[in-house]
Amino acid sequence: MSSDINSTDRAAQTDGFHLVIDALKLNGIDTIFGLPGIPITDLTRKAQAAGMRVISFRHEQHAGNAAAAAGFLTQKPGICLTVSAPGFLNGLTALANATVNCFPMILISGSSEREIVDLQQGDYEEMDQLNAAKPYCKAAFRVLHAQDIGIGIARAIRSALSGRPGGVYLDLPAKLFAQAMDATAGKLSLVKVVDPAPRQIPAPDAVQRALALLKGAKRPLILLGKGAAYAQADADIRALVEKSGVPYLPMSMAKGLLPDTHVQSASAARSYVLAEADVVMLVGARLNWLLSHGKGKTWGAPNAKQFIQIDIAPTEIDSNVAIAAPVIGDIGSCVSALLAGMGSQWAKPPAEWTGAIAERKDKNLSKMAVTLAQNPSPMNFHSALNVVRDMVKAHPDMIVVNEGANTLDFTRSIVDMYEPRKRLDCGTWGIMGIGMGFAIGAAVTTGKPVLAIEGDSAFGFSGMEVETICRYNLPVCVVVFNNNGVYGGMDVNPTGGSDVAPTVFVKNARYDKMIEAFGGKGVHATTPAELAKAMAEAIASGRPTLINAVIDESAGTESGRITSLNPQSAAKKK
Ligand SMILES: Cc1ncc(C[n+]2csc(CCOP(=O)(O)OP(=O)(O)O)c2C)c(N)n1
Ligand SMILES: [Mg+2]
User: Fold this and answer.
1) Spacing, Cα 365 to ligand 1 middle (Å)
2) Could you tell me if 283 and 222 are in contact, meaning their C-beta atoms sit under 8 angstroms apart?
3) Which pLDDT does position 380 carry in this prediction?
4) Cβ atoms of residues 227 and 358 within 8 Å
5) 500 pLDDT exceeds 80?
6) Residues 197-213 pLDDT 10s
7) Which of these ranges, 87-101, 166-180, 413-427, 555-569, has the smallest mean pLDDT?
8) What is the number of the ligand 1 atom nearest to the C-alpha of 433?
C-alpha cells in the first residue's frame, strides 16, 4: 500500500481518510465535534470538504459533551474526534459521562504507531488508548486496515445505539488514514447499518404482571427517567400517564415529556408521593443515588412498596431493591404494550390519593409563588429564576442547559418545562463541565435557541467555549449565576491568611466581558428586569450572549440539595 495517493490515480483509489468520512456519511452522520492536530487534522479538513459540519472546539471534553448531547437528542451517535494521548484523555471524561448517562456517542481518536506504543519506545503522544478507554465505555474497537473501516464504524454505531445506549471508543492509528485501496473495493467495504437499535418487544406475561400490580395499587406513582425522554415515544408515554390517571414525577431530563404544569404532575409534592406510594412504576429511570437507591427515609416505611420497572437492560432489575414486576424491552415497545393491555375500562387511582397529592401541591405551589414574587437586592436564586421561568414558558421549544449546585437544584425545581428533551443537565454523575458542550451540541443539532443557566463555578469548566459559540454564531444565551464561588462566596480562610477560602472566587467578577472578547454580546444584570430584558433580546436576536447575573453570595447552601453527601470530620479541630 502506498503511503499517499496522488491526483492522477485518485479516481481509482481511496484511502483511510475518505473511507472514514464515507462510512459516517453513509450512516446518516453529518456532523463531527472535534479538535484538530496530528494525526486527524486532514480528516477534519476532508470531512468539511465532503460537506460534513465540523465543529471545532477549544478542549476535547466539550466536543465530547456536544457529541453526547447530539446523541441524546437525535438517537444517532454523536461523533467526537480527537488527537492521540492527551486529546484522547480530554475526551475520555465525556465518553465516560455519556456512558453513565446512556447517551450514544462515539469517541474517535487518532493514535500513534502501534509497534512503538506496544514496545513502549516513547512515541509522540504514546498511549495504549484502546485499553485505557475500555472500562469507561460500552465497547472499544481499533481498525488497522483501510478495508476494515466500514465494519469498524458499523460496529461502533451498533454498539452505541443498541440495547442501552452509551459511549463507544474507536481507535484509528495514524498509519490507517493514508492507507490506500481500490476505490470500488473501498466502497463495497462500507456498511450501512440496518436497524441499529432493534425494537425489543416485552414478554406478554411481564406486561400482564405489571398491569395487575398497577391495577391493585391504592397509591400508585409513575417515575419517568431520561430513558423515557430518549425513547422518543412521547405520545404513548403521555397516553399511558393520562389513561392510567396515575400521578407522575419526572427525573430532571424527563421534564417536559408531559408539561410540568400537567394536573397529574406530582413534582410539587415529591417527598410526599415518594414516601407514600404503594406501587411505583419506573419508566426508563434507574434506582441509583438520584432516587436514594429505592430505599431509606425518602421511600417511607420499609418494605411497604412494590416496583414495576420498565428498562431495556435486564441487569438493571434488582440493582438496589427487589423489583416485583420487571418489563424488559425498549421503552416505546413496552409502553405501547402496556397501553394496549390497559383496555378501555381502566379505573383511575382512588380519589383519596390524588386528592391528598393535589392538596399538598396547591400548598407548596402557593408558598413558592410568594417566594418567587419577592424582589430582594441583590437577586437571589428565586427572583432570578422567576424571570427565567417566564422566559421558558414564552419559548417552550428553547433548550435549557443547566449546571451548578444551587443553580442546578433551584432551576430544576422552579423552571417548568413544556416539551420533551428540552432540558440537558449534570445528569447521573452530577458532573460540572457539561455546560458549553451540551449547549453547542444542542444548538448545532436542533437549530433552536439554547439558554444555559450556569453556576459561576460550573461555567468555569467550559467557559472558553464561548469563543466556539461566537465563532459559529450559535443562538446560545449563557446566564452565569454569579454568587462569587462554589455554592456561594461567604467562606473565609480560618487562618486569616491572604489566600481566600477554597470555595471563593474573585468577587464581583464580570463574566460578561469574556464573550465580548470574541464579538458576542455581554450583559451585566443586577435585577430581574435587567435579566429578563437581556434574555429576551438574546432570544430574539439569536446572537451569542453572556449575561452575568449577580446573585446574593449568601443565598446558596453547601452542595445545594445534597449537603448530606458531604462526609463529616470526626475530629473536633478544624
Ligand atoms: C467535574 C466536577 N468537579 C467538581 C465537582 C464538585 N462540584 C459540585 S457543584 C460544584 C460547583 C458549584 O458551584 P456553582 O456552579 O457556582 O453553583 P452554585 O451552587 O454556586 O449555584 C462543584 C465544583 C463536580 N460535581 N464535578
Ligand atoms: Mg456559584
Assistant:
1) 28
2) yes
3) 97
4) no
5) yes
6) 999 999 999 999 999 99
7) 555-569
8) 1
Residue 552 CA to ligand 2 centre (angstroms): 10
Report the candidate in 310, 277, 120, 131 with the shortest Cα–Cα distance to residue 210.
310
Tell me, in angstroms, the distance from the centre of ligand 2 to residue 405's CA.
8
With residue 179 as reference, give the H or E element that holds it: none
Q: Is the pLDDT of residue 260 over 50?
A: yes
- For 136-167, the pLDDT digits (tens) are 999 999 999 999 999 999 999 999 999 999 99
Model confidence band, residue 6 (pLDDT cutoffs 50, 70, 90): low
C-beta of residue 311 within 8 angstroms of C-beta of residue 323: no
Of 75, 80, 69, whose CA–CA distance to 193 is shortest? 75
Query: What pLDDT band is residue 10 in, cutting at 50, 70 and 90?
Result: low
d(CA 428, CA 72) in angstroms, rounded, equals 14
- Compute CA 28 distance to the chain's CA centroid, rounded to the nearest angstrom: 22
Looking only at the bridges linking them, the beta strands covering 248-250 and 180-182 are unpaired
Ligand 1 atom at shortest distance from the alpha carbon of 456: 16
Residue 170 and residue 152 in contact, taking contact as beta carbons nearer than 8 Å: yes
Residue with CA at minimum distance from ligand 1 atom 1:
432
Q: How far apart are CA 30 and CA 424, in angstroms?
A: 22
Residue 374 CB burial class (10 angstroms; 0-12, 13-18, ≥19)? exposed
Q: What is the Cα–Cα distance from 471 to 283, expressed in whole angstroms?
A: 40
How far apart CA 112 and CA 173 sit, in angstroms, is 6
CA 470, CA 499: separation in Å to the nearest integer? Answer: 34
Q: Which cell numbers in the block locate residue 522?
A: 455581554
pTM of the model: 0.96
